[in-house]
Amino acid sequence: MSDLRLLMGGLGYGDVRTHLVSGNAILTSSKKPEHVARELEQAIDAELCPGVKVLVRTRAELAKVIADNPLPEAATDGSKFLLLFLSAEPDLAGLGNIETADFAPEEFRAGDREIYLWCPGGIQDSRLNKAVAKQLSGVSATARNWNTVTKLLELAGT
After folding, report:
1. For 146, which of 7, 81, 103, 151 could close a Cys bridge (C-beta 3.0–4.6 Å)?
2. 118 located within any domain
């Protein structure tokens, strides 16, 4: 993570901070999020690790994702509540093919560029998580549990 912070600082990003050892980073920039994502992907590919996809959300977008949580009861156990951040809008038709009753008590809801996934039995063994992932062809995704998502917003400040 220290290499990632150095890389980001070297690209001119300000207030660079990382959270955990997972690629989560907070930074300031006047550039558009799409530009930041492309620039970071290229730099990470060249200097740290080839093939890494970068997804960027502004502080406002992250706050909206949290505020718009369609499964508020799931947020009571943030370690079992997963948020999949997507590079584009999800294929709602493909997601609609998932028979949610087959996965109860697990459930999911699609947002604009994210999917909220409640896995009361745990994320690692979630059958619904795997079913949703199969429907995301052509879309890059990265998953974070709710505890991490809310911590990232906290680190982003006001």
Report:
1. 81
2. yes
Q: What is the 3-state secondary structure (H, E, C) of the chain?
A: CHHHHHHHHHCCCEEEEEECCCCEEEEECCCCHHHHHHHHHHHHHHHCCCCCCCCCCCHHHHHHHHHCCCCHHHHHCHHHEEEEEECCCCCHHHHHCCCHHHHCCCEEEECCCEEEEECCCCCCCCHHHHHHHHCCCCCCEEEEEHHHHHHHHHHHCC
Q: Which domain holds residue 120?
A: 59-156
pTM of this structure: 0.91
- Return d(Cα 69, Cα 31) in angstroms, integer: 27
Same domain? For 63 and 114 the reply is yes
Residues 83 and 136 in one domain: yes
